[in-house]
Specification:
single chain, 9 strands, 32% helix, alpha+beta, signal, 236 residues
Length: 236
């Protein structure tokens, strides 16, 4: 489906609720979300003593040392962030079958990976959670335009992958939190961490692979999480 057609179809379904949520047209809101960039005044320098981390499903993402910045807010909501430096992801699937699946791709039933950069998008409480952690360690923001410019080409390339999903929660009367992390692993290369309340299997860890035959997606693990509410049954 073309993006334009998808936005129109989405708007027709959500229009009664969305009319109260925003005065922007669906296309305007889509473009605004898609055009979001990093806020040069919301840059933080992290050190190991800060112990900044996020737990999402079975994965723990630790931002150990480096530079972190939030996206500029839209309608008062922060929907993204970027990080460059030294971080670590640890993910241990609970199900033996999922551990076996992980082992097929990684040679281990556990994802234990250092990374050098991460791109985060979210509609859940990630921004508030991180800001709370920053306040706990008296971490103040600073302005750093040079750091922002480093991320410009990456944002221009991958923002659109997440825009429609974020738009859905902006307009929906029943928003379902989502968290996406595109992480550049030291030994694995880039991989995805997805926790999405609109998926039947809310947690996904995987990686896009390109070779001479085309582009493929390796799903390291995909499974439901017990602490997520069940999706509503679709009307028939």
């Amino acid at each position: 489906m073309r993006v334009g057609a998808g936005v129109v179809a989405l708007w027709s379904l959500l229009m009664p609720a969305a009319a109260f949520a925003t005065e922007q047209s669906p296309h305007e809101l889509y473009d605004a979300i898609n055009g979001l960039s990093v806020d040069p005044s919301q840059v933080y320098q992290l050190v190991p003593e800060n112990r900044i981390a996020l737990r999402r499903g079975d994965a723990v993402i630790s931002l150990e040392e480096g530079t972190f910045a939030f996206f500029s807010p839209l309608d008062g909501r922060i929907t993204g962030a970027v990080f460059s430096g030294r971080g670590h992801v640890l993910a241990v699937p609970r199900d033996p079958v999922e551990k076996q699946q992980m082992g097929r791709f990684l040679g281990s039933p556990v994802l234990d990976q250092a990374f050098g950069s991460a791109y985060l998008r979210f509609t859940d409480g990630t921004a508030d959670e991180l800001l709370s952690q920053f306040r706990r360690v008296n971490l103040a923001s600073r302005t750093d335009t040079a750091f922002i410019s480093q991320w410009g080409p990456t944002l221009a390339r991958i923002n659109e992958n997440y825009t429609l999903r974020i738009l859905i929660d902006f307009l929906s009367p029943d928003p379902r939190p989502a968290f996406f992390a595109w992480v550049d692993g030291v030994s694995t290369g880039p991989f995805d961490i997805v926790v999405d309340g609109r998926r039947d299997e809310q947690l996904l860890l995987g990686q896009a692979i390109k070779n001479a035959s085309g582009t493929f997606y390796d799903t390291w693990t995909s499974h439901s999480l017990p602490d997520f509410p069940a999706r509503p049954v679709a009307f028939r």
